[in-house]
Write a structure and sequence with these properties.
alpha/beta; Aminopeptidase; Alpha-Beta Plaits; 2 domains; 9-stranded mixed sheet; 33% helix; 22% strand; elongated; binds zinc ion
């Protein structure tokens, strides 16, 4: 099957480059926001709910009407494939996720899927035939707010988590992932991981303030930073706040405070690393008792493993230097992801060919692309988030910014297709 009309290869520079229709893309962003739409302009569309079914149905109908074959795998990932010239080549894939956080925005994830639909419309109306098939993907449960972990569908697809284990995960009401998939009619027949891709490119909003601060239009995302989580237990001695002299105290909260400051200073010394002490439990937590115990939870992130090693070593040193009984446990970690150089180059060249300002950046948040990077050449494109806000109903990216991102996505796909 080929696209109708006179087939032609698309130019990737000059005045004849095909361009997406920004008004049409914006109209889709506005209309799909009604599936789970909230008063303040945001969206509450938790994964595998009735609202999620509605937007999935819209996506499937729209892609079918454009001539795509639509398939769903057993974890509910949807693959809409628009045929290219050589069906024996692996498809080029684009996509993201249509689920949201509670009181989330209308751009996080959604932009990447709707831009994929707009790419197919553009190819069709300009009678542009790619060599490769183009597959637009909606990954199941990227957000992880109803079922944990996040990035569930892409994780199963990429082999990072076994389907049997993930299907059995329950939400707070005891509903399993499998039952929720069946309830909305999106547990497909296909085994996850059924297809290999020539490349995967994900357009996403930045969810941070860097592009806006740099007055830059496009983020060329070179990877996703790694994460290490630590638990710290500090044991002191509970004592009377009135009758215990200052030089005879073993105050666990004072020691904890020094650790909180150390985490901040270590992150500042290891830029672009970040470090957060986000949780503290004080025992007994009473005004007139010298604290006898504190439990801290620390999150450290850096784009490189070396950076993470250095930050961890500095934390261990800072703790050793304190005169207190402290136990440090590293309870979880996630390796940094480095995206494919050629695909990153294609994003850079595409932004340049379109005359858009662009900077390289590392994603601070996790994305489906991080799983895909383990199985095929992958990169991401970021567009600005107003005030850096995301996971918030006030999340906003302008129609022009969305259109620029989708155009860079289209040019990137056209460049990859030539290789
Ligand atoms: Zn997202």
């Amino acid at each position: 099957m080929t696209a109708t009309g006179q087939a032609r290869r698309a130019p990737t520079s000059g005045d004849n480059m095909p361009a997406i229709n920004g008004d049409r893309l914006w109209a889709d962003i506005v209309s799909t926001a009604s599936f789970g739409g909230a008063d303040k302009g945001g969206v509450t569309r938790l994964t595998l709910t009735e609202e999620d079914r509605q937007v999935r149905d819209w996506f499937v109908d729209e892609c079918r009407s454009l001539g795509c074959t639509v398939e769903t795998d057993q974890i509910g990932n949807i693959f809409a494939t628009y045929p290219g010239e050589d069906r024996s080549l692996p498809p080029i894939a684009v996509g993201s996720h249509l689920d949201t956080q509670p009181q989330g925005g209308r751009f996080d994830g959604i932009l990447g899927v709707l831009a994929g639909v707009e790419l197919i419309r553009t190819l069709k109306e300009t009678a542009t035939v790619l060599r490769h098939d183009l597959t637009v993907i909606n990954w199941t449960n990227e957000e992880g707010s109803r079922f944990s972990p996040a990035m569930m569908g892409s994780g199963v697809f990429a082999g990072a988590s076994p389907l049997s284990k993930i299907e059995a995960v329950q939400d707070r009401d005891g509903t399993t992932v499998r039952a929720a998939l069946e309830a909305i009619g999106y547990r497909g027949e296909i085994l996850p991981g059924h297809v290999g891709f020539a490349a995967y490119v994900e357009l996403h909003i930045e969810q941070g303030p860097l592009l806006e601060a740099a007055a830059t239009e496009i983020g060329i995302v070179t990877g996703v930073q790694g994460v290490r989580w630590f638990d710290v237990t500090i044991t002191g001695t509970e004592a009377h706040a009135g009758s215990t002299p200052m030089d005879q105290r073993d105050d666990a909260l004072v020691a904890a405070s020094q650790i909180v400051l150390a985490v901040r200073d270590i992150a500042r010394r290891h830029s672009p690393g970040v470090g957060t002490t986000g949780f503290a439990a004080v025992g007994p937590n009473s005004r007139n008792v010298v604290p006898g115990s504190v439990h801290l939870q620390i999150d450290m992130r850096h784009p490189s493993d070396t950076g993470l090693d250095q930050m961890q070593a500095a934390l261990e040193q800072a703790i050793d230097a304190l005169d207190a009984r402290i136990v440090l446990d590293r309870i979880w970690s996630k390796q940094p992801v480095v995206f494919d150089l050629l695909i990153v180059d294609a994003v850079r060249a595409s932004a340049g060919a379109l005359g858009h300002s662009a900077i390289e950046m590392v994603s601070g948040a996790g994305h489906d692309a991080a799983h895909l990077a383990g199985i095929c050449p992958t990169a991401m494109i970021f567009v600005p988030s107003k005030d850096g806000l995301s996971h918030n109903e006030a999340e906003y990216t302008s129609p022009e910014e969305c259109a620029r991102g989708a155009d860079v996505l289209l040019q990137t796909v056209l460049q990859i297709d030539l290789k």
